[in-house]
Amino acid sequence: MSRLPGPRPLASCQTGELSWSRQVFDIYGIPVSETAPHVDEYFALTHPDDMKSSRAIYDDFVKQHAPRIEFQHRVIASDGSTRHIKGVGERHQSPDGEIVVGYVQDISSFVQTRQELTQAEQLLRLAGEKARLGGWRVELDPESVTWTAETAHIHGMPAGYSPPDVSEVIEFYAPDFRQKIREAFEQSIASGEEFDVVCRLLRSDGQQPWVRAIGVPEVDEQGKVCAVQGAFQDISKLREAQERAEESDRQRLDILESISDAFFTLDEHWNFSFANRQTGVLLERPAGELIGKNLWREFPETLNSKFERQYLLAMKNRETVRFQDFYAPLGKWFDVTVYPTTAGLAIYFRDVTREIKNQEHLRLVEAALSRQNDTVIITEAESVESPNGPGIVYVNDAFEHLTGYSRSEAIGQTPRMLQGLLA
Fold it and tell me: Side-chain half-sphere of 148: how many Cα atoms within 13 Å?
């Protein structure tokens, strides 16, 4: 599951119309070119087994005028896959009536991992082959080792096999883990404390399962450790699930690092909790140096500015805001979108300085052309020999005075409209 804020859909309590961000379309596997579904249409996306309960949750929210709604159900994406969705929404007043503002997350990987963890916990309570859980015991004087059948099986050995001594046991571990298990065992004998370690085996068949070894020392009547016994479990599947979840998180972070927009998150105390590389580029600061530091102290020029006002608005009202403003210390115009999160704010921004300057330049050019005494017509870059001819995209004031056509009448027409008029 992504640790980052989910996208924020909007719903009208009066009409049932939904308004989705691009990310929400992606989560539900619906092309962005399509319109967001109506609430009634939305439930058609819900998994048949979840449709009735999810509809009941929404109906109760509407009928009881509850301030908040939380839901979790499965949906069928356009590619036929099943996705687990979690969402939170809050009721707000807007000029158009009551709306629901919230976010949704695709928690499919989290659900999968949770299911695998639950399975692992259940297996831990079982003994024998199905649980991949075995037992072991080491007598110290004289030294002897006893393995259960499942412990032997995990080590790639036949049932009934037990190593002659502890040194032989340690040889079953991968070289990088032999010192770790040896120290845990010896420390348990010396201190009388239990140990619980995760290591990797190196079996004779080449397999390298991840295992969890738990040891509990046993003392004699004199209080001296005379034996160590415990449990031994193959946790390869659990480990693989954790690694997949970690890889999924790394991939999400890689995506945030690769996007062209700068992105950072703030906690409730206005401290940076994440910043991608592009943030460092645009703010001309190493992104890593910002983590844990306070926004207002690091960028004091944002105080008493539009940046501060909009950030405070998003934090206070828990609503998405978007704005543009000039940041004088860097001489840059930024286009900023602020999303409230449960932990603070998530902020996307990009440098639009060149766009702003281009717009200003175009306005100056248009102003200059409008004052020309000569007629100026600008058309599309198409051949005059084409069936309809190039369309007119701009005319100046002199054109209107000379031809009698207004600018709105000329835009979209072709210069052929002037045939005979200027002869």
Answer: 15
260-354 adopts what CATH topology?
Beta-Lactamase (3.30.450)
Tell me the CATH class for 371-418. Answer: alpha beta
User: For residues 405 and 373, what is the distance between their CA atoms, to the nearest angstrom?
Assistant: 16
Tell me how many helices (H) and strands (E) the chain has.
15, 17
CA–CA separation, 144 and 140 (whole Å): 7
pLDDT digit string (tens) for 23-62? 888 888 888 888 888 888 888 888 999 989 988 998 898 8
DSSP code, position 300: G
Tokens linked to 25: 């379309």
Is the domain 10-106 a CATH 3.30.450.20 member?
A: yes
Q: Where in the chain are all domains bearing CATH 3.30.450.20?
A: 10-106, 124-239, 260-354, 371-418
Query: Regarding the domain with residue range 124-239, which homologous superfamily does it belong to in the CATH classification?
Result: PAS domain (3.30.450.20)
Task: Please state, in angstroms and rounded to a whole number, the distance separating the CA atoms of residues 14 and 37.
Answer: 15
With contact defined as beta carbons under 8 Å apart, do 169 and 201 qualify? no
CA-CA distances (angstroms) from residue 313 to 6, 8, 259, 343, 344?
A: 19, 16, 26, 16, 12
The answer to whether the predicted template modeling score (pTM) of the entire model surpasses 0.85 is no
What are the tens digits of pLDDT across the range 82-120?
A: 999 898 888 888 777 788 888 888 888 888 888 887 776
The structure tokens listed for 189 are: 């004998």
